[in-house]
Amino acid sequence: MYWARGEKAVLFILLLILVFSLGVTGCRQGEEVAELPPGEEEPVEEQEPEPMGFLAPLTGELVEEEELTKRRPVAVMIDNDPSFGAHSGLDKAAWVFEMPVEGGITRFLALFQHRDAPVLGPVRSIRPYFLDRAMEFQAAVGHAGYSPQAKRDIAQLGIISLNEFSFSRLYWRTKDKKMPHNLYTNTEGLFAELKERGLDKITPSWDISFYPEADPEAVPGEPATKVRIHYHIGVVEYRYSPLHGAYKRYFRGQPHEDAETGEQLLVTNLILQETEKPRVLDSEGRLELKTVGTGSARVFQLGKNYEAVWEKKSREGWTRFAEAGGSTIKLVPGNTWVQVVPEGTRLEIE
Asked: What mean pLDDT is reported for the chain?
């Protein structure tokens, strides 16, 4: 009898130990998995949505309409005589080339594809070495006349010309400026003309690669927040704006602004391409500017700059810009301006 009572006591003690152990375990489990108040759900980590759109092959930007990424670019010859005032439409260009012409001035070749310019100009006549840049992009050319050599080149090389002489309906003149600095066009009309003639689509042959985003850590080089180019026409200056992630353009010490928007021009990728001194061809002072061959370059992106080299194997061939190690440069998504700088031109970089 006493042994039976002893067995019961032992069993009771073991039961207490088991209950106590389960309670401690439950508390520890409760610490690891906290219960949420009634009606509340455990928060789920949100994932950033995948970028939507189609890649614009000239700028690396995303656009909503795929058709815009397949349009044949149009390259328009733009005046840069300081006497006429502000430009219109350069802010919408994917690429812009600034190169010297006769008279100690420069002109622009502005390329458009996915972004339209409702007003673009003033439009001027074209020179052969500007055609070399247009052919790189398989672009149609908008212009108002040409030099004798450029006229021959257009015919012999099969370049699509939207000359104001032949397509006057695509152009108009304003009354607030004197001729020849008052001729304007728009990209809507130029693209529509190409589409009507069945010339509006291309398969891009150019070689451009982009960074996935504007990341200063990914861009090589040393800091460079200012660059000045001392052309004969005046000093072109770029100042880096961290707010915009781009370089603000100045001309002769004043902000270079678009005539339509009043906004200062911004450049995401700035390339200085050094070339041989141009040779004077005729009594008009027209120039022969080297585009085929190799030379030095310098690239400015996101407040940094680095040395590069360029190579172009033929007039219609692509100008390849490469880092010192040989790899093709990458562009930050956005527009690109190429400043062609003949040897002997004074440069200042800060």
From this structure: 90
